[in-house]
Each structure stands twice: as structure tokens, then as C-alpha cells.
Write a structure and sequence with these properties.
This protein has about 90 residues and is an alpha+beta fold. The chain has three helices and three strands; from the N terminus they run αβββαα.
């Protein structure tokens, strides 16, 4: 997110009345996004890139396979997301 650390941007957004939504397996993209809201500002949805040591390729597979809400780990595996912590 540029020059400022993500935590600084989140704090500043909250201080200015912006709702910051957490990372959500069913709604987040790789980057942070704005979601429509019915008030003055949009909501800021945090993206997967905020998670340490997560691979963009895995998250892009998850996003591509997201035709409806994921309900269990089997659906993630079917989408091609690696769930092994010992992968190379």
C-alpha cells in the first residue's frame, strides 16, 4: 500500500469513519478493495496479501474457484489451494 505500513492506513481509515472489514475467504481479493456501502464512505476489505507467507498463486486459485461461498476445506482443495504447511 505504498509508503505507509498497512496498519497505519487501517488506523487512519477507522479514525475517518471508514469501516475496515477483515480478510474473508469468500469475499477478499489479493489486494485490498473497496466495497459499496450506503453511507458516506465505502468499506475497506482487507486482501489476502496482508497474510504473512501466503502465496499469491494459491489465493488466485481460490478466487478463480469461488463460484459461491466456500463451506469447508474440501471445497478449497477442489479449487486447487494447497493446504499443506510443509510445501516447498
Amino acid at each position: 500500500m505504498g509508503f505507509y505500513a498497512p496498519a497505519q492506513i487501517v488506523i487512519d481509515a477507522k479514525n475517518h469513519g471508514v469501516t475496515v472489514l477483515p480478510i474473508d475467504i469468500n469475499f477478499s481479493m489479493w489486494d485490498n478493495t473497496l466495497e459499496k456501502r450506503f453511507s458516506k464512505y465505502h468499506n475497506l476489505r482487507l486482501g489476502f496479501r496482508q497474510v504473512k507467507d501466503i502465496r499469491e498463486s494459491d489465493m488466485q486459485a481460490l478466487i478463480a474457484g469461488r463460484h459461491s461461498n466456500y463451506k469447508n476445506i474440501i471445497e478449497l482443495c477442489d479449487a486447487g489451494v494447497s493446504v499443506s504447511p510443509w510445501r516447498n
